[in-house]
Amino acid sequence: MISDPEKVARVRQLYDDMDLLKKFAMYENQAYNEVKALIGQTSNEIPHDVFYTILEHCYKK
């Protein structure tokens, strides 16, 4: 664990400067939509709801 407050502050500032939280949220949303589309294309051997339930448990965690 890093205990140097200056280093922690610098890393947090870099995250803010690079807008990483927003970029990750956009990536996460895009990946979520892509996975949903892929689920919709799968065969019905396993109900789609099973996959959607798993996806919902992983999304925004």
Q: Can you describe this structure?
A:
The protein has three helices and no strands. With 61 residues, the protein is an all-alpha fold. The chain has a domain of 40 residues. This is (Mediterranean fruit fly) hypothetical protein.
Brief rundown of the structure:
This protein is an all-alpha fold. Helices cover 77% and strands 0% of the residues. Helix 2 packs antiparallel against helix 3 (48-58).
Salient structural properties:
61 residues, elongated, single chain, mainly alpha
User: Which segments are poorly predicted (pLDDT under 50) over 5 or more consecutive residues?
Assistant: none
What is the number of beta strands?
Answer: 0
Q: Work out the radius of gyration.
A: 18 Å
Mean pLDDT: 93
The portion of residues forming beta strands comes to under 5%
The geometry reads as elongated
Helix content bin: over 70%
Sheet/helix structural class: mainly alpha
Put simply, the count of helices is 3
Q: Main sheet? A: none
- SSE ordering: HHH
The N- and C-terminal alpha carbons lie at a distance of: 22 Å
